[in-house]
Here is the input.
Amino acid sequence: MVALVTLVVVMVLVLGVLVVGLLRSHADILHALHSLGAGVGGDEVTGSGGGGARTHSHDHVSAPAPADVAGAPTGNGSRTGPLVIGPTLPPERDTSSVPDVTGVTPAGDAVSLVVGGAAHHTLLAFLSSGCTTCQTFWEALARPQGVGLPPEVRPVVVTRGIEFESPSDLAKRDTGVSGVPVVMSTAAWDAYEVPGSPFFVLVDGPGARRIGEGSGMRMEQIVRMVAQALEERGANPARLKVPSAEAADRQRERENDRLLLSAGIHPGHSSLFPASMDDVVPGGTGARPDGNRQDPAPTTGDPGPAAGHPDPRAEHPGPPDQAAIGGGNGPRRRVEG
Amino acid sequence: MPTVRAHGISADLPRGFEGRIFRRPATGPERPYPVAHFATFPLPPDTADFGGGAVDRMGPLDIFVVLFEYGPESLGAPLFERVGMPRSLSPAQFRPYTIRRGLGGQSGTQWFFTENDRPFTLYAVLGGHSQRFRLLPRLNALLASIAVAPAMAPQRLGSVGSVGSVGSVPPAGGGSNGGGQSGNAPGLGGSSP
Here is the structure.
């Protein structure tokens, strides 16, 4: 009987040790994920300077405790440093500069975007093509209207330059990022002292200062950081005019172009310049349903857009001279006007 | 001061300007040539060549500029007989009807010229015609900073590797700041010099 009791006690003790070990291991994993910004159990928000201690853990981005915020509130109630989410950043980082972003696009074009001093706010998304965590942000930014960013915030994707990134890889992603500029610029990564990807910097354009930065695992975390930073850091009033009707028209035009191109109908294709109804309805008689004969359209003998035909991609003729320009010797596509 | 340089065009952007120098991918038998956009407001990535999708986002204090290159077949055409890009525009050269779309309050000007054996048109829009005296110094600062390299062989144009390092772009201004203009009709005959 005594032996049986002793055996049970030993077993209970062993199982207790195992349970405690498992709990500790689980806590370590949660802690590690939390410090990576995974948001398990809540998001981490600290003040600027990167040296702030962790504050609260809630289901949303919580307000930093006063001790975590670098600098005292300014006259308009704003704080001097940016709101920081994610892993602690080195305290020696310069969080004040807001240089313009200059580089090339994945298509190989030169581009420079105004950040500090702009009339709008800018959310710089430093992403990479090879970073698996970045994938969710590439996908989210493909539909920038749907991610919930305030309308006065302009999202901009910044990757490293062509010495680190493959333009062809990025070009594939670029086609999925609608309306969001993608700039390849190692200089911008250096200027903003980006510790790795993904990383985000929110710049108050009119105020020419950073008001938020850090990393996260989901776009929702970044959107919450943006909203909180705009509110808590006393962001200046900003504007970013985006005409929705125009955007819808252009989206529709892009889709029409895509369908035409996929069907092999390129600018200058003969089907775009019918000379008679027979060209429109193959095998038809050229007669209208009402029995009236369709007069053939006048032909110029030169089917090229430069000869005065409307550009199939153009809704309207461009500035007044366009139709006559180009000498008529070579097709010259002009996208709308 | 940020500098953008591609396809033989470069510009030192004055404060507040952003820019993009690009060439659209060819589809079909067309031959695309470089286009440069400069603006004091956020340029949508899919802005059309002459500002479609962008000019309607302008505020009254905004500026939009297009530098649009034509093919070599246009060289020597009377329309392009002016030598050198205009570097200093005056308020009288902007007309509310010299714009592609009649957006209220805006005005524009358009010039055709040849620079370094490359035919171009320059199309500039002011967000507020009433603000032209205030806006023109900024616009002229941009125009003074634009440089166009001599024409290159067609096969060198457009490769990704050429971006940002296309040829040597001569400094802006010298020799091509033609003050007295010939009778090239800018746009709808509106802004003759």
